[in-house]
Write a structure and sequence with these properties.
The protein starts with a strand and ends with a strand. A hairpin with a 2-residue loop joins β8 and β9. It is an alpha/beta fold. It has 2 domains: 172 residues, HUPs (Rossmann fold); 91 residues, Pantoate--beta-alanine Ligase, Chain: A,domain 2 (2-Layer Sandwich). The radius of gyration is 19 Å and the shape is globular. The longest helix is centred in the middle third of the chain and has 16 residues. Bound molecules: pantoate.
């Protein structure tokens, strides 16, 4: 597996690749888990040459403490990617991602930018757009892979691709879960043993709402789920039922499928999850 720290070295390697072989980019911020590795596996399954980027992007953190505490496990990440059969890893510093003369275009995100994640993490999606636009521009992959766990991010990436990179194919891979239902996340490792036992309550709450699809009164189901989470020391930032593509909120079961989206805190660790139902 090749390691690249500089974009010019990476570009030479990309240009030396067999042109018939499609290049897949798996953008990550490291602290890899099985969810990330399932993206590499999906790309390999499509016979792509696989390139994973590892860059903790400061522009997408609205909270400096969160950036500081974001887990960094580079040696382990490299070992995991090697075992997964990834072909190359790009591990840039900021100056290799953000060129001083780059004119990152404005992408109209409509409601997507300000709702849910956007309202609790102002500027977050602009930061995500900045880094992905810069990586896509430098690498020009033909395929990109993202996890469905970051559902709203996937919708934002779709907008970026439609507007700027229509030639890139996007693949959204289902969320990987632990045996008890907890969505895999780099942040889970910050939970205490006790917190780890409580965390699957989020999955259970989402399941309980979906189980009452069509019959239950949506605002009431959401309020009951919040209370259930609260009893397990999980505070809710948002818990909403929405239309999958636009994330317009739903007060009735008028969209099929619909998506439930959750963000909240357990032991000061911010966790997100979602479920189509
Ligand atoms: O999902 C993530 O890990 C990040 O938001 C991404 C897509 C790698 C951009 O920094």
């Amino acid at each position: 597996m090749k390691l690249f720290f500089y974009r010019n070295k990476l570009s030479s390697w990309i240009h030396a690749q067999d042109e018939t072989q499609r290049l897949a980019l798996i953008p990550t911020m490291g602290a890899l888990h099985e969810g990330h590795l399932s993206l590499v596996a999906a790309a390999k399954h499509m016979n792509c040459t696989t390139l994973t980027s590892i860059f903790v992007n400061p522009r997408q953190f609205n909270n400096p403490d969160d950036l500081l505490r974001y887990p960094r496990t580079l040696d382990l990440d490299i070992r995991l990617l090697e075992q997964a059969g990834c072909d190359a890893v790009f591990i840039p510093e900021s100056d290799q991602v953000y060129l001083p003369d780059a004119a990152i275009p404005h992408i109209p995100l409509g409601n997507l930018a300000d709702r849910l994640e956007g309202s609790f993490r102002p500027g977050h999606f602009q930061g995500v757009i900045d880094v992905l636009w810069s990586l896509f521009q430098a690498i020009k992959p033909s395929n990109v892979f993202f996890g469905e766990k970051d559902f709203q991010q996937c919708m934002v990436v779709k907008k970026l691709l439609d507007a700027q990179f229509p030639e890139i194919n996007m693949h959204i891979i289902p969320t990987k879960r632990e045996a008890d239902g907890l969505a895999m996340s780099s942040r889970n490792r910050r939970l205490s043993a006790e917190g780890r036992l409580k965390a699957p309550t989020i999955f259970q709450a989402l399941q309980q709402i979906c189980a009452q699809k069509q019959q239950g009164v949506v605002p009431q189901l959401l309020a009951e789920a919040r209370a259930f989470l609260e009893r397990h020391n999980i505070s809710t930032e948002y818990l909403e039922l929405a239309v999958p593509e636009t994330l317009e909120p739903l007060n009735h079961w008028t969209s099929d499928p619909a998506v439930l989206l959750f963000a909240g805190h357990l032991e000061e660790v911010r966790l997100i999850d979602n479920m189509r139902c």
